[in-house]
Amino acid sequence: MPRILITGNGFDLHHNLPTWYDDFMKIIKFISENQETDFHSIYKNAKNYDGIKSAFTNTISISPEKVDEITEITGKNLLYQYFQQEYNIDTWIDFESKLEYLLSCVYNAVKLLRKNVFSTGTLPHDYVPIKAALDGKVEYAIVLRILKVVKTDFHSIFFYSKYLVKKEDLYVDINEEKILDLIFSQLMEFKKLFHIYLETFVTPLLDQRTNSIKQVTFYQFFSYHFTFNYTATASKIYGDKTKLFYLHGRSEEKNENIVFGINELFNKEENADDYLRFTKYYQKYAYRTDYHFLNDIRYSRSSDFQFFFWGHSLDKSDGYYVNEIFDFLQESKNSKNIIVIIYHNDESYKRLLRNLFFIRGRENIEKRMQERSLIFCELNSPEFNQLLEVRLTSPMMDPSAH
Prior knowledge:
There is one protein chain. Helices cover 47% and strands 12% of the residues. The protein is α/β, with parallel strands linked by helices and 402 residues long. A six-stranded parallel β-sheet has the order 8-7-1-9-10-11. The longest helix has 31 residues, at 176-206. The radius of gyration is 24 Å and the shape is globular.
């Protein structure tokens, strides 16, 4: 009876790690502006400072060279500066949405500039009115200004020649490829900053655990663990009791090999290929993270599969994986298969339910809930414990035997 655990950031948060998007941005900002590296000064910026204090010893060692590296990146990285100014980003899902918004603004701005400016000839001046060039879309001009592709005032945009295509001393087009190269290089540098954060402020905590760390006793009974996280939380806290797969790469490897981007292309036109590098599904193949997913499970399709989602948002950004699991079970046609969604509180239950309705549709979700093949329950609730009771008292199946 294979039991498969699938975790998102909520798994790390349960173990008191500062892995909120907000934790990352606030701690990095604090370090770059203050250069203070004592435990209290750093982690007081985290959402769950009290939990961090109780779960880990208050010792941390950060080299001056690491502080200098953080300060250097934050001082020049355009995406870091852009995201620091965006106050409506609370989660990693919001971050991905904002990155997609930025890319879509560039895409649409390039289309308008080619239509309104360059289709009629060459650029007449080094500037054009925003209203004429971008149909008055001020947000497009702002994004191009943030990326330092153009300068702007209240009415006009002024082009930097390095982002224009020049022929015979005339500017004949906007250089979309060069703009995308700029954004991608900035994204890779921002990813490096995040990697530094994980290896400097998160991973060391795992080696300084106290007895109050929130371990769960049932973890050992899972046959496989697929995680969307980059951290070594499961292996360091629970050891090698399960077969662990990192779907988006892991922080213990070099930063270039972690998946960090948007879910899907927002544009389906012929020139969309240049944007492909920003998608997570392209990156997982390009960086050779685990892309086999359920194919790594060595069981017969006739087995009784039990999938447990814990700390995962079930957002449309990972809809591909959600659909793969539902379709996997649907193809097996085993009435004993179940999917268990572990939620934190009533608000999270409703959010998870909405997300599943969006991904799978009303008919599929209603049918599964009526059949009790899709079950929502709180961690360690009586319903959850009852659900596990029979499974946990039965012998653990050895995955290697299949």
